[in-house]
């Protein structure tokens, strides 16, 4: 059973470095993903800002080969700060089967990964890793944006609709993540699609 964290939080009030100074242009508007989604993102945790992970999920009834796809991590100014290229041979199983997730884990991730069929280590180029006021987007081999999540309005490239709620240091001991519902519903509005929960890498939210 997932535990909602937003109320408690409010009460407690292989990776490639980006080219320095390179900005990314806004991507064209896309429809809701019908293949793979950014399913859950934890930008920080009890250990520190690198106690983090990104989880992708295959939402189809067919295997999805995501070899060579890119996971681009954005800073608060919409610049790409890191680019993660998905390993060759990464095939996500059909939804609701073992291997449906890819978990990209930060260097200090403390949460156990339930389904470790597809796991890739993320070594960030900064001490922040995935910025809590940044965003994450996935691009296929053709360079087309497939899905994304933003945690601030200025982070426009990954953003879909309104930005998701940011994770803060006050939430760290709650082990938070921004996660979709158990169906991985995608309405193209980050604020609607993602809510704060106790993190569950490699498991249904």
TrEMBL record:
Keywords: Signal. Residues 154-176 are annotated as: Disordered. PROSITE patterns: LTD. Residues 26-159 form the LTD domain. The keyword Signal applies. It comes from the Bacteria. Residues 1-20 form the signal peptide. InterPro entries: Lamin_tail_dom (IPR001322), Lamin_tail_dom_sf (IPR036415). It holds the Pfam family LTD. The keyword Signal applies. This is LTD domain-containing protein. It comes from Kibdelosporangium phytohabitans.
């Amino acid at each position: 059973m997932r535990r909602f964290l937003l109320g408690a939080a409010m009460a407690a009030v292989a990776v490639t470095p980006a080219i320095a100074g390179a900005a990314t242009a806004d991507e064209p508007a896309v429809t809701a993903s019908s293949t793979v989604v950014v399913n859950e993102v934890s930008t920080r945790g009890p250990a520190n800002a690198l106690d983090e992970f990104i989880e992708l999920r295959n939402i189809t009834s067919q295997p999805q080969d995501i070899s060579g796809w890119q996971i681009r991590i954005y800073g608060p100014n919409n610049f790409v700060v890191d680019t993660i290229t998905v390993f060759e041979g990464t095939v996500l199983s059909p939804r609701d089967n073992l291997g449906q997730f890819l978990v990209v884990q930060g260097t200090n991730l403390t949460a156990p990964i339930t389904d470790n069929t597809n796991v890739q280590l993320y070594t960030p180029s900064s001490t922040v890793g995935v910025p809590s006021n940044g965003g994450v987007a996935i691009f296929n081999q053709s360079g087309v944006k497939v899905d994304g999540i933003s945690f601030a309005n200025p982070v426009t490239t990954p953003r879909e609709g309104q930005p998701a709620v940011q994770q803060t240091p006050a939430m760290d001991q709650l082990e938070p993540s921004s996660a979709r519902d158990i169906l991985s519903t995608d309405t193209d509005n980050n604020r609607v699609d993602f809510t704060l929960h106790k993190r569950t890498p490699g498991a249904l939210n």
